[in-house]
Amino acid sequence: MRQLLCQVCGGPADRTEAGVLWLLQDHRQDWVGWPEAMAVTEPPICRACVPLSLKLCPALRKGAVTVRAQGYPLVGFHGQLHTGADLFPRAVGKAITTFESPTARWILATGLVRELRSCLVTALEAR
What we know:
By secondary structure, the protein is mostly beta strands. The protein has one helix at 50-56, and strands spanning 15-16, 19-25, 39-40, 64-71, 74-83, 90-98, 107-115, 117-122.
């Protein structure tokens, strides 16, 4: 995620003048302007890996789109949230947080989060 490598093959994600390519579940009905300002936990993708992802990922079978984003700053991380109420920290569930959040110190991070900006939803891009 830090180096914007393809989530499938680990090669460079596809980049054009329109932005870096992401393959996402289609949630356009969830809010006006989706996916603008959406937090993503999945890395971008290269065009060659789009068909394989669509075939193998159960979540994408419900509907998927490719999105080009011109802005994609790192804004936080996700992982297992812990509580310090007991003598030893105890896992209480998954969470996403910003780097500045007070809860950040209680998360065992498993990945980075980027925010998509200046987005263009495109037809599914494949080779």
